[in-house]
Amino acid sequence: MKIIKYCKIKENRVTVNGEKVLETAEQPGSSKQFKEIYTSLGISYPKFYKMDMLSKLAFLASEYLLMDMRDKLSETETAIILSNRHSTLNVDKKYIESIDDENYFPNPAHFVYTLPNVMIGEISIRNDLKGETLFVQVPSFSGEILKQYLDSMKFKNVICGFVEYSDENNFEAMLTFIERDEKNGIMEISEELDRSYNNF
Amino acid sequence: MKVFIKSDNIFSPLGKTTEEVFSNMVDGKSSVRLVEDSEVCKVPAFLSVFEESFSGKLTKFEQICTNSIKYALADSGADPSDKKTQLILSTTKGDIGVPFDITAGKIAENIGFVNKPLVVSNACISGVVSVIIAQRLISQGFYDNIVVVGADVLTNFIVSGFQSLKAIGSSICKPFDADRDGINLGECASTLVLSRKEGAIEVINGAFNSDANHISGPSRTAEGLYLSIRRTLEGFKEPVDFISGHGTATSFNDETESIGFDRAGLNEVPVNSLKPYFGHTLGAAGVAEIAVSAMSIKEGVVLKSPGYEKHGVSKEINVLKNNLKGDFSTCLKTASGFGGCNASIIFKRNS
Question: Could you tell me if the ipTM is greater than 0.85?
Answer without folding.
Answer: yes
